[in-house]
Every structure is written in structure tokens, then in C-alpha cells.
User: Fold Aminotransferase class V domain-containing protein from Botrytis porri.
Amino acid sequence: MPSRSEITYFGAGPALLPTDVLETAAAALVDYNGTGLGLAEHSHRSEIAANVLNTAKADLAKYLEVPDDYEILFMQGGGSGEFSATIYNLVGVWVEKRKQKILKSLGITSDKDIPEDALVKELQKAVDEELKIDYLVTGSWSLKASQEAARLVGAEHVNIVADGRKINDGKFGKIPEEKDWKLSKNPAMVYYCDNETVDGVEFPGFPKSLEPNGEEDEPIVVADMSSNILSRRIPVENFSVVFFGAQKNLGSTGITVVIIKKNLLPPVVATPAPTLLRKLGLPIGPIVLSYETISKNNSLYNTLSIFE
Assistant:
């Protein structure tokens, strides 16, 4: 059998990890810092776990130059879980913003000052006529994300901004030019996968048509960066949400990192009540995919794998 030093490995994920990192991790798995317990055995609510978590956040913020007005969340479920989480959370943001817009147009400051049925009626009209989630489909990962959106909220609310197959003989492999993109007006989000590993497609930089404009209705841009995070500098401040699984560029399988702008979280934007979402026919996500819940609990709402 070949030794580790003889192997050249290019797996997309789980990816190759440095040998010295694995050796350090192996020792920590048996006895972490002389505590007599392995890191995986320590309570995720212990001071040791909190220190590991906070150090990881600080290191990521430093390496990625994450601005102070962003929150770093550690979650579970991988990129596929985020296909759903982004929809649950950002459609909720869209609903809350539409609600506030409706109240403002009526000269009302609180939803307590309007009959609930009347507010629901106005919101339902907005959902039916205006709710769109935009997807740049440039490979299999963004395609899966768009399909999950159609499954959760209905295909009528999903707008395919561009489809790489349409300019490449029915196959992925190219990114359509921005001049041909068909963006919705004020979508709940604009989603793309920065690097499509299966299809060999990577965005060369942040799309110019999605750059922040300083306006209240500037695009809410979401990017899946699972396979190229930390491989180059990115303008984090241009994104509303960036997510990535740890297993490709950071570590082993089990942790999903979400970097989200704080103005998409309470108290800046309230989370719509589940009863309201039900009345509007919109999906209610599992509590473990709630960005608000994970943020409020410092990523420890449920048992997080600290060893990762």
C-alpha cells in the first residue's frame, strides 16, 4: 500500500488536508490541551467549545476581511441545506419589507393599527404578483438550488436570470454575458454559485450588474462559494449572504458556514410570524435553518460539531 507522502489527491470534497493538521487533530481527538478528554467529547456549551468557536469566527473574519456589519454563523446541512435555508430566510425578509411598505403607504406605523385580514389581503396580492427569486443557472449546483426554490415556493415565483446551457449546445460550461441577464424587479434574492465544480465554470469576479448601489432596494445577492472560498480575495461587502461547506477548502465534512449581513436579521428586519406565512401559503423552515435562531444562540442552538 502507498504511504500518504506518495499520494497526490485532487478530490473535490472532502478534499485533501495537510498532514500536520490531521496529526494535530488526531491528538486533539484523544486528549485536547491536556484536559483528558478529546475535543469531540467536550460539551458544545463548555468554555473550551466557546473558545474554539470564537477563534474560528475571528480567524475567518480576518482571512476573508469580513466587515463588522456581517455575522458569521456555523450551521449544519451542507450547501444543499442552504438551498432551502436561503429561501426560508430571505423570502421572510421580503415579506417583512413588503409589510412595512404597505403600512407606510397607508400612513400606519404598526400592524396592530390595521385589521389582520386587510393586511393579509394586501400581502397576498404582493406575493402573488411580485414575489420572485432570481437564479443564475450556470451548472448543476445552481440548477439544484433553483429546483429547490420551485419545490418550496412554486415555479411561478422562480426567475431564471440566465441559463448557461442555452449558449453552449444544451450543456453547462459557459456563463451568459451580463447584458443578456433578465433580472427581476426587487427579487427576494439573486442567487448564484461562484464555482461550479462539476461543470468547470467559475465567475471571474463579482457581477457588475449586481454591485450595491446604495439604494434601499439594492439587490440581495447570495453566493454558494463552497468550492472556492479562501482561494482568492472576495468583496464580502458586495454580498448579502455567502455560504460554504467546510469540506472542500476548510476542513472535514459537518459544518456549513454562513456569512450574512446583519441588516437582514432582527432587530433591523423582523422575522414574519409563522401564522402569517401560513396564511400567505409560504413555507416555514425548520428552526435549525433559521438564521435568526442560529445568530441569537451563537451558532449553538443545537449540538454543533466543535471538532470540525
